[in-house]
Amino acid sequence: MLVKDLRQLLEKYSDSTVREIVVEMYKKIPKKIKEDNGIDYYLEHIEQAMDKTLKPKVEEIDFDDLSLDVSEFIGNVKAGYYFSPNRVVDKTRRSKWRVEAKRYIKGLLGANEDNAEEASELLLELYETLSTACGYTILVSDNPFQTLGYKQEEFLKVVFEKRFHNGYTQKKIEEACKTIINSYVDRETVYRDLNESLVETLQTDEAREMALEFLSKYKSVSSDEYTRRQKRNYATDLYLMIKLKMNDYDGGISYFLANYQERDPEITMYCLLTYYLRKEDLNSYWLREYESALKRGIDFRNGLKEQYVERKAKAE
Asked: Which one of 47, 49, 196, 290 has the minimum C-beta count within 10 Å?
């Protein structure tokens, strides 16, 4: 229904009926929508809201206060105070952590140029805290990015854009790579999505080369063998994706095959063919690597065997 249709419809009712309609509609508005759109404030200040001659008040942000609040929030989340009962964060604040976090994100994204660097650092730390909440129970929500209305990789891309706003440095690029490798992901996200957020943000070959240099030397310090192998594979995935972005297909593929660590080499080939060489314009590389693996004695799963037949037919 259009607004003009709604106006015409309401004219049919008495004032008392319209009031009842408003009350019933208010009851049906989800709490999240009320909070996000300031419905209560609008109702309490209806005359101001309807006065189109008034300019909206721009809220001035005291960045020093904001940074202290964000740092305190992050510390309290890490301490578990936004999950379990405690004397530091009361029940009401725990249940409304999303409102608090959205306010901080909005403030950090709107920081002026003088505070842009510190704001980007706090945004990164906030991302890492929310990422940790995907792996450990430190918030009342186990899917924090979705709760805030973001896809995890989209939020991370915004963070990277802010971090690189004043240019690329080796330190910031290494920081970004480590952030991805050490991230916990939510149920809707895989690490390749996080990789893509960085690949899209590195806009120059010089920046990409800095990332490649770090990734080629990366070693996990974890004492757990499985974790070390897993993180090394994350770094190898990211290295390959950057190489593909640079159109250095041979360099990326050879590095991937030499460094991706799986006990079964068929799994390594499955990852390469399924995740990275699946596009039609890379079909020649797909076929080449498949046939090369066959010569090395790798026995592929049926799904890849069927794909090979189809791709081979298209290439002939």
From this structure: 47
